Amino acid sequence: AQSVTQLGSHVSVSEGALVLLRCNYSSSVPPYLFWYVQYPNQGLQLLLKYTSAATLVKGINGFEAEFKKSETSFHLTKPSAHMSDAAEYFCAVTTASRGGADGLTFGKGTHLIIQP
Amino acid sequence: DAGVIQSPRHEVTEMGQEVTLRCKPISGHDYLFWYRQTMMRGLELLIYFNNNVPIDDSGMPEDRFSAKMPNASFSTLKIQPSEPRDSAVYFCASSLQGNQPQHFGDGTRLSIL
Q1: Nearest by Cα to A100 from B34, B68, B56, B77
Q2: pLDDT tier for residue A42 given thresholds of 50, 70 and 90
Q3: Best to test chain A binding among B9, B99, B100 (most A CBs inside 10 Å)
């Protein structure tokens, strides 16, 4: 079984400041990790994914995340926050333990607030 | 290129009624997933299909919930009878392969009065 912990249900940063959203995972087999963003009244949009290739993953909208196996972490960062980044962010994990798929296990989400 | 399409976007009904949610996955995707999102429990996997066959339904909360995928381009999630605690946003997602990113629909916001 796998699990995801997102530290901080709300994170507030100033426009132009560094964004750091924390995600720690637990998995008994090598994981596949994802970050999704959800805007109000919309579905989830993929930001980036880690699937056992490069540990530093670049995604859309200037976001990136680094997979650290020793820390079981997959934190999401962006050097400079924009007002349009205000949304809910979800970290998710899945495995290919059965050679096919498991559904995604999501963290509780982090609401990112951008202060002008 | 059309994404995952869900209908209806909003559903309000009285408890005891049957509710049917619909999903059209992205063409060519072999996997289809149903999730439920609530404030209390966050995003939960309900069931998923591979090539139209249900693989894991352990997340389906009760026998009142059922899901079908009669063909590669259509799936339904049915609640009968519905209860107020079923109120949530239900998402459908599809992916090419199991460990590939899942593409989500815009969800169905269900309110049971």
Answers
A1: B56
A2: confident
A3: B99
